[in-house]
Automatic annotation (TrEMBL):
It is a multi-pass membrane protein. It holds the Pfam family DoxX_2. Its main location: membrane. It comes from Algoriphagus locisalis. The chain crosses the membrane at residues 12-30, 50-70, 77-98, 104-121. Signal peptide: none annotated. GO terms for cellular component: membrane. It comes from the Bacteria. This is DoxX-like family protein.
Amino acid sequence: MAIQKRFNLLNISLWAVQILLSLTFIYAGFMKLFLRADLPWLWIKENPELVWISGIVDLLAGLGLTLPTLLRIRTMLTVYAAFGTIALMLSAILFHVLRGEGDQIGFNVFMLISAAFIAWGRGKKCPTG
């Protein structure tokens, strides 16, 4: 019984993190693709191609972190999306550090840790499907 409670708690925690990350990435992708002028960061004006690419990647990450698990279709795609999100956040951290914006990587680190939790949880401890 205690094992089942821990499994349920882990499953609920994974869903909460998946939904949080998914909504965050969908929102970020939408903003980067359609409302660029409203974003305050200097790098957006300096790198319009990067904004476009990262907007598409953000949308795909947001969808990939929840839809496969939610629909129970090829649920391993959620794990792959989590690993892709880890790679994306490592790239973002490197990008900001190279630009001398190391003080702005806290959010990226949080997102990286959250994606690692999803990859671990959905890959090993609490897979669905």
